Amino acid sequence: MIARLKGLLLEKSPNRVVIDVAGVGYDVLVPLSTFYGLGEAGSSVSLRVYTHVREDLIALYGFASPLEQDLFERLISISGIGPKLALAVLSGIDPADLVRAIRSQDVARLTRIPGVGKKTAERIGLELKDRLPKAAASADATAPDGDGVRADLLSALTNLGYHRAVAEKAADAAIKKTPEASFEALLRDILQGMTRA
Predict the structure, then answer these.
(1) What is the pTM of this model?
(2) β-strands 44-54, 57-63: how paired?
(3) What CA–CA distances, in Å, run from 83 to 58, 60, 77?
(4) Could you give phi then psi for residue 74, rounded to 5 degrees?
(5) Of all residues in the chain, what percent are helix, strand and coil, respectively (each to 5)?
(6) Whole-angstrom Cα distance, residue 106 to residue 125?
């Protein structure tokens, strides 16, 4: 079973990446939270991997953090939630926000995730409330630091090729709009706004 992949990023799209490890290309499905943290094609990448095996399929799911992987594995342990829906959940909400929504049984927040209906949201809340990963406690306890998040956003945007002035304007607007949002959520909103512009 494959647990980790480290190599060169060959291809990158919002839900999948191809990683070259010693000449072998691995097709890995990823949530948006992981996708936004990856560099450009040709850069070095290291992902934690969950190997999903069915009689007709072997699929690799990649994660940037232990929390993402832990939440994914807990989600697929719930009856009626497969890897595809679990990935959609992690793509639709920041991992720390997911932990908070489960802890508070926030069904309304969970149903805003594409593909998650009321019954599924209730099941996620009920089944995972007392089984959240240990890493979730620290993720839940740490609120984003405004200056650190802004610096990280500027770094990410300039590395993606945006001019410094454009990056500063976009980062400031996003932080002003949702000051409590995580780095990943802010970056996702900024990039979505820039692609629409």
Answers:
(1) 0.67
(2) antiparallel
(3) 12, 10, 10
(4) -70, -40
(5) 50, 20, 30
(6) 8
Identify each DSSP E strand in 2-109 by its residue range: 4-13, 16-21, 24-29, 44-54, 57-63
Please report how the helices 164-177 and 183-196 are oriented relative to each other, as an axis angle in degrees rounded to 10: 120
Q: Is 8 exposed, middle or buried (0-12, 13-18, 19+ CB in 10 A)?
A: middle
For strands 16-21 and 44-54, give the pairing.
unpaired
Range of the domain at 176: 146-196
Q: Provide the CATH number for the domain around residue 29.
A: 2.40.50.140
N- to C-terminal Cα separation, the chain = 43
Separation CA 35–CA 17 (nearest Å): 8
Last residue of a domain, one of 63, 82, 111: 63
- Measured N-to-C along each axis, helices 164-177 and 146-159 cross at an angle, to the nearest 10 degrees, of 140
The pair phi, psi for residue 184, each rounded to 5°, is -60, -45
Rounded distance, CA 126 to CA 103, Å? 9
**Secondary structure class of 52 (helix, strand, coil):** strand
Which tens digit of pLDDT belongs to each residue from 51-61? 999 888 899 99
pLDDT, tens digit (0-9, with 9 covering 90-100), for 76-135: 999 889 999 999 999 888 888 888 888 888 888 888 888 888 999 999 988 888 777 654
